[in-house]
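INTERNAL AUDIT FORM
Audit reference: QA-55
Scope: verify that the stored structure record matches its stored sequence.
Auditor: D.O.
Record contents follow.
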Amino acid sequence: MAAQNATLTLETPVGTKTVDVYLPDAAGTIATFNLTGPAASTSPTTFRTPTAGRIIDVSVAASTTATSAVFTLNSGLVNGGVVRWANQLNTLSSRQKLNIPFNAGDFIGLNQTT
């Protein structure tokens, strides 16, 4: 497989927001994010949330070599924040719904695993 782009969906008090995500094609890598356009390998590895809210969805066009990933908040792993890319394909209407809360000012990251 090749590197993939994904979309992260956040629910905040001011509405639903999307963040573009770039997923390198290797296990043990860190995703990158862009709030204003397509994410690339040179984009930041975290983004800071301006308001409190929750992560409600992440969707990807195709699974990468890394089969899963775990969300981080302020560099700490999120309990229950593991996603399997094969279950998060954007063509699946039944993909896992997420409910990962975050506070204003938190840094969100995504680390790919095996």
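Auditor finding: record pair retrieved intact. The chain has one domain: 4-113.
Action required: none
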